[in-house]
Structures are given as structure tokens and as C-alpha cells.
Amino acid sequence: MPLQWQKDMPIPHGILWLDLIDPDEDERECARKVTNLRIPLRHDIDSLALSSRIRTDDDAMYLSVPYFADCEGHHAPAPLGIVVTAKVLLTVRFAPSKAFDLAASNSDEHPWTSSADALATLLESIVNLAAGRMEAVAVDLRKLSERVFTRTRLGTAALRNCMLDVGHLEGQQTRNRSSLLGIQRIVSFVRSKSPEWMSDDVEVRLRVVDHDLRTLDEFDDQLTNKLQFLLDASLGFINTDQNHVMKVLTVASVATIPPIILAGVWGMNFKHMPELDWYWSYPLALAAIAISTILPVLFFKWRGWLSGD
């Protein structure tokens, strides 16, 4: 089990994994005495320079992920620092992590034999949970796709909710992508260094993790394309609805032009207008106005311009 440090705890000996969660100066000093390592500060882990994130110092490998988040909810991505030597694995994190809990529970069934073994278990747990989160996003995408592509005509409000769901899923996938990118760099670096104290079994496990990360990268591309497709489809349906509204308004405006002209002609105040002396002039005028309105609408309907509306 990783040792999660707390104040006033006795300094242990022979540990394989020391897990520091948002440590203060006292906890950092205790960890330094146990491991004889320089404990990285948060701003060291947050550094964006690749040379600062992944490097070797004597026999220790200093690894970091500036944006790491593997917990659901509103936990913001937080940096993760990893220092591994032939004797001990030291991790410094600033947020809860399901992957760390999973790796710790796995040690009960399969006790670690070395710090490299503990590192491999941690990386495997991170990748496995990330794969599960991506599969959950894929399931939500399928459900969202069924909502968008339906024969029932959706209103603008429903399509807006679909777009909000697309943005929510994209946010989840961005968190996954940021975490996995940092883990992929760590795995590639450790495999390239291949220290002598790393056993062949750990090397094989890291190779499998590297392959899984590449597969998840391809899966991420598929999900990203699907998210973009659903976003474009939702916008397309909204534009189609707007075009339908404009078409109806256009038909209505065209259909009302003839009666307006007729009413304008018969509303002129000239002295000599033959229609004024007709007995049936008023009902005939009303009938002419009604017919002039109905005929354009029937024409548009005959041409199919009102279909779907």
C-alpha cells in the first residue's frame, strides 16, 4: 500500500511507494528524510517546459503531468509529480484520484516487488480508468446522436440542449486527453531510459501500456470527430428551422401583395370610379381580395415550396 503521509507520523523504513497529497513543509521534510530525494514543489510540476517536466537527476527520474484529472465531478485538473528510483516511488498530487486508490487496492492481491513494479501498477490503473471514461463518453455520444437524428422535428430549444450536452462531453474528453498526453510522455521517457533496476516484466507491462495509450489516442480522434459532427448537425438543424421560418414569411408576404394592391386601388378617392355604382361591388371586392390571397398560396403548395411546413 502507498503511504499517505500525515503529520506526527513516525518515519517508516523500507517503503516502496510514498504518496503525498497536497503536502505542507513538515510533510515534505519528512518525505525528504525518508527518501533522500528533493521533493518537487507545485510550481516545479506546473512548468510547461518539457525539459522541466521529464528529466533524470542522478539515479532518480523526475516525471510530471501538469494537467491530471481522473475523478468525476467538479475537481479541476491538478498537477501530478512522480519521482522514481531503484528503491522508492514518490508521488506528489493535489487532488483526489481514483487511479491511485485502484493501484493501492491492487497491491493487496499482487504485492509489489520493486518501485518500478509500483510505477507500472499506477500507470496501468490510470490508463484503465481513462479507457473506462472514454467508453462512457462514447455511450453518451450514441444516446445524444439518437436524440439529434430523429424523424421528430426538434425545436430550437431542444437542439440548444443537445449543443450544451456536446460541450459537456467535449469538456470531459479534454480532461481525459490532457491527462493521457502527460502519461504517454512519461511512459515513452521511462521506456527510452530503461534503467538497469527495471525488470523485464515491468518493461513488458510498460510496452503494453504504451500500446494501450496509442489505441486510446486513435479512439480519442474518433470521439472528437463524432462530437464535431453532432455539433455541426445541431447547428444545421437550427439553420434549417430558420430557413423554414423565412420561407413561410416569404410566402405570406407574397400572398398578401395582391390584396393590398386591390385594396389600395379601391380605396382611392377619385370622383369617377365605375365600381362605386355597382350594387354588388363590395362583396365582389371582398371576393377578389380573398381569391388573390388564396391563389398564390395554392401555387406555392402545388410547386411543393410549403412541404415540411
UniProtKB/TrEMBL annotation:
<keyword id="KW-0813">Transport</keyword>
<keyword id="KW-1133">Transmembrane helix</keyword>
<dbReference type="GO" id="GO:0005886">
    <property type="term" value="C:plasma membrane"/>
</dbReference>
<keyword id="KW-0472">Membrane</keyword>
<feature type="transmembrane region" description="Helical">
    <location>
        <begin position="280"/>
        <end position="300"/>
    </location>
</feature>
<feature type="transmembrane region" description="Helical">
    <location>
        <begin position="248"/>
        <end position="268"/>
    </location>
</feature>
<dbReference type="InterPro" id="IPR045861">
    <property type="entry name" value="CorA_cytoplasmic_dom"/>
</dbReference>
<protein>
    <submittedName>
        <fullName>Magnesium transporter</fullName>
    </submittedName>
</protein>
<dbReference type="Pfam" id="PF01544">
    <property type="entry name" value="CorA"/>
</dbReference>
<dbReference type="InterPro" id="IPR002523">
    <property type="entry name" value="MgTranspt_CorA/ZnTranspt_ZntB"/>
</dbReference>
<comment type="similarity">
    <text>Belongs to the CorA metal ion transporter (MIT) (TC 1.A.35) family.</text>
</comment>
<keyword id="KW-0406">Ion transport</keyword>
<keyword id="KW-0812">Transmembrane</keyword>
<dbReference type="GO" id="GO:0000287">
    <property type="term" value="F:magnesium ion binding"/>
</dbReference>
<keyword id="KW-0997">Cell inner membrane</keyword>
<dbReference type="GO" id="GO:0015095">
    <property type="term" value="F:magnesium ion transmembrane transporter activity"/>
</dbReference>
<keyword id="KW-0460">Magnesium</keyword>
<dbReference type="GO" id="GO:0050897">
    <property type="term" value="F:cobalt ion binding"/>
</dbReference>
<dbReference type="InterPro" id="IPR045863">
    <property type="entry name" value="CorA_TM1_TM2"/>
</dbReference>
<keyword id="KW-1003">Cell membrane</keyword>
<keyword id="KW-0862">Zinc</keyword>
<comment type="function">
    <text>Mediates influx of magnesium ions. Alternates between open and closed states. Activated by low cytoplasmic Mg(2+) levels. Inactive when cytoplasmic Mg(2+) levels are high.</text>
</comment>
<dbReference type="GO" id="GO:0015087">
    <property type="term" value="F:cobalt ion transmembrane transporter activity"/>
</dbReference>
